[in-house]
Batch of 2 targets.
Target 1
Amino acid sequence: MYNLIGAGLIVIGGGIGLGQIGGKAMEGIARQPEATSKIQTAMIIIAALLEGLAFGALILGKG
Amino acid sequence: MMIAKKPISFVVVLILAVFSNFSYIENEKDNEEIQGNPINTQEEIDAYIQHHLQDAHDFVLFTNGNTGHHIGFPLPIIIWDEGIHFFSSSKFHYGEEVAESKGKYYVLHHEKIYRTDATGTLALDDHHHPTNVRPLDFSITKSVVGILLTGILMILGFGSLARGYKKGPIPTGFSRVLEPLVLYVRDEIARPNIGEKKYRKYMGFLLTVFFFIWCLNLLGLMPFGFNVTGNIAVTVCLAMFTFFIVQFSGNKEYWKHIFWMPGVPVPMKILLMPIEVLGMLTKPFSLLIRLFANITAGHVVVMSLIALMITLKAAFGPVVSTGMSLFLAFFISIIEVLIAFLQAFIFTMLSSLFIGMAVAEHDHH
């Protein structure tokens, strides 16, 4: 039961983080379309780091 | 004509058709014999997903829920137990029987091999783990088959690409698909992160790890249920390669930044030292957790959506629930194809980023 609540909290946190990253990246691309590839690469790296954190928490919660 | 031009896909379709007929006949026969309950409980679905995520000593293509009858094919078992034992996993009958080899008896319990007696008794402790002796298991399991298959495919594909350059600068056939991917890894991943001067030395590792992870991720989406990159032992090994390459290619500046951070007061240097050492270890740890968790989560989601057709059957009827789960599983599978590429890309990207940090020249201060 508690680990399910924890999983929900992790997903909320991860969702907020991913939303921030994605939204800001979109904004950046809209402002400077010529920098799209650089922004995308940086976005994917940050998203991956965040995802690693969230998944780590999920696995720790499960085990 | 189209089929004749593509012999491999034709063979695959033929095999699938034969197997599906086979299972159909098998089901028909069993339905006449027993009118039992098909799998419908949550525990059984959970057990099925758990079993899929585990490595296995045999391939199970179909299981008849009524009779518990499996259809699949065995794999070789190689164990070291005071001498080498080599036999086919068909002796275990999908974990249901005791296998005998050179006077010793073995039993399969949750895909682990235990030594036992002729009746197959297992002494369980308080946590339901067997206390029997476990021999050293070097078996060709499902994951090992997946790794070997990927290795052979990569040697064939990239071998032909490399040989093609001896004949001329323009590759032909399948190599035309591989060349842009190799160039992509070089120009988009290695060059910007490691630097123009030093990237060449690490191209071998980065290309290997990129295509290895990508192929295995895609293999995991195909039938037969390989789950190699969702196996933590595999990702630990891949991350350890990155770790050791980073440590051995680290220059003076890299070690200085870890043990004696320049530009900060002495008490701060001492405080930063354990944090930096920890950071050295957490980088490969996050690499291995990310790959493992992403692929495992992807497999669980696909399997759960397929299982929806059983859980929602009572509420919506068989046709609607099957349609729903088919649509959702199809949709998620397409996303999984993207994730398969993305995870290979991120693993390679972060590896090259870490290598780039280790070899960077700090001439600005």
Note: The beta strands of chain B are 58-64, 69-74, 76-80, 84-88, 99-101, 104-109, 112-116, 136-137.
Target 2
Amino acid sequence: MFTGSAVTPRETWVHTVGRATIEAVEVLGDLSLFSFRMLQWMVARLPQRAVILPCFYQIGVLSLPVVMVTGGFLGMVLAVQTFDQLVMMRLETRIGAVINISLVKELGPVLAATMLAGRVGSAMAAELGTMRVTEQIDALRALGADPIQYLVVPRFLACFLLIPLLTAVADGVGILGGWMFSTQILGVNSFHYWHNSDLFITGYDVVSGVFKSVFFGAAIALIACHRGFNCGAGAEGVGRAATEAFVFSFIMILVLDFFLGMFLNTLYYMLWPMPVTLG
Amino acid sequence: MQTASPLTADSQPIIELKSVTQRFGRNEVLRNISLQVRRGETLVLIGESGCGKSVTMKLMMALMEPTEGEVHWSGRPVKERNERQLVKERLRFGYLFQGAALFDSMSVYDNVAFGLRQNTDAAESEIRDIVLARLRDVGLPEVVCARKPAELSGGMKKRVGLARSLALRPEVIFYDEPTTGLDPIMSDVINELILQTHAGDAVTSVVVTHDMQTVRKVADRVVMLYPLDRLQPDEKQIVFEGTSQETFDAANARVAQFVAGLAGERMLELAR
């Protein structure tokens, strides 16, 4: 007679990968539903001004110093790193173009968003996570408020609208920092600095950088709020939510940067096709 | 001192759980629970930590959805309501959370005024009158209005939480471990407030507690839940249902052990 074994099969890497995949799909599905509900509330009813303005102040005004410092040093670091290479090719007057195009197209938006994911995203996840573990989110629902409308919509709006502005500030301060270091310390001629910048940078480059930061802002807000809302128990759960908010936001910024970069390049060549050269 | 009101047999269920099961991942907390809350009564849920009392109460208020089974409000399934109806109808209920769950960033005044501002068109002067009246009801002076929750003692936080849940004049109030962490005198103050609230507006009350003094003082009906991990698969999770007096006189060993607060051999073995 066959006697079945009651021993649980040992867990293999297939189980581990399978479980991780299922969990990842579940989190993505949940994040999609969360985003959908947030958008529904944005259309249906915005929160009162008294709820929105403190978020704008926290996320926008209080982030200005960190964004300005990031932008300023970024411009100067770019000057330090590129100057020697350009001198070897006798192209040092082109340094303005190199710094400014790197700043406005790529480094400004990405690094400003990364700083804000750390400063704003982690703080939002920790704040909402604490509200979750202390039952304040349940209390909101018990008092007739929808937590997504009351807590997520203002934070989303603040990130969505203000992170592009903060990116523009970071770009501006970075451009000034790069110019100051290049002309005052490295001795590059100021006229050639700006002239070459003007030759190589188009309005499209500036707009495309700020355009990307709109998506970065939305991603930071949604990921941070979602992590906070799904925070585990206790201080450990809050800490993990804050860390995950930064890590997932950073990964999403890089992924979005890649795809938006490809999209914007394609769009550019559709709008302004390269002249065909024969021979 | 007031005493608990007698249970009226013809009371209609204002809330009903029908064969409700609740799981969190692989962890089953409630299994096939059926329970009614009748209008005007004070129902007290007792049981060991982790047996699902607070989850039961959150299910009653639709703060979470059951994994299986249905929750009915006034005879109609909660899931038949859309999100907006749910938000609106939830205002029939007040909830005093275990840690009071006051909003940290707001003053006491704004905490109590929150529900009024969110759900009514009342003028600020009217809101102020209501807030001060509710704070007076729970024995708090006007001077606490400007304080932040972090500046309050545990008992004051609970009283502000109660004032906040009373602000919208709910039909049912849920109390999640209202006396936990309070000294005996403050616990008695809270128990008196529960009785006073119940008598004053004839509200229905659902209380989750470990405190047998609260059971003795406020309960019309007592329901005891037992942790699933110590039940046989065919045993019901509600191991006792009766009046306050019947609880204290119960012959059921599990109830008697809980009432007497005795660890028992099995728990002591686990502790060792």
Note: The CA atoms of residues 53 and 206 of chain B lie 11 Å apart.
